[in-house]
Amino acid sequence: MRFSGILTAAAVAALVAAPAAANPLSRILAKSGLTPQDTNIMRQAEQSLLAEAQGGKQAKWSNPDSGAHGNVQVAGKEGDCVLLQHQAFVKDDQTAKQVRRKFCPSEGKWQLSQ
């Protein structure tokens, strides 16, 4: 996995899971119930939306291997940046995990921003 992919997976997991300042990525993922494959599928859904970056657009995702599923939608814009809102469900848990992520353009690519 590329370094940016690892950072993206860590950011998703950190936002979905409990505060994780001292937890390694494997522990964060284990606590959230999301697998690395889940976060990769979530990133693919994000990329499809970032290509258009129009408010209200949404993409669904699911991982039949883990049972996790969810959706991501364009929640708004801040200047040139795009806000994406995630809802993720892990297998056998109907409580949605909410994640909001901000992406800004940098050198022709979308970069996760704070």
Compile the SSE list and pairings:
Blueprint: H1 3-16, H2 25-32, H3 36-52, E1 58-62, E2 69-78, E3 81-89, E4 97-106, E5 109-113
Antiparallel strand pairs: 1-2, 2-3, 3-4, 4-5
Helix pairs in contact: 1-2, 1-3
Which regions contain 5 or more consecutive residues with pLDDT less than 50?
Answer: 1-11, 13-23
H and E order: HHHEEEEE
In the residues, how many domains can be counted? 1
The tally of strands reads 5
Specify the overall morphology.
elongated
Helix content: 25-40%
Whole-number mean pLDDT: 77
Features:
5-stranded antiparallel sheet, 3 helices, 114 residues, 34% helix, disordered N terminus, alpha+beta, single chain, 5 strands, elongated
Describe this structure as you would to a colleague.
This protein is an alpha+beta fold. It has one domain (3-113). Helices cover 34% and strands 34% of the residues. It contains 3 helices and 5 strands, in the order H-H-H-E-E-E-E-E. The protein has helices spanning 3-16, 25-32, 36-52, and strands at residues 58-62, 69-78, 81-89, 97-106, 109-113. Helix 1 (3-16) packs across helix 2 (25-32) and helix 1 (3-16) packs across helix 3. Residues 1-11 and 13-23 have low confidence and may be disordered.
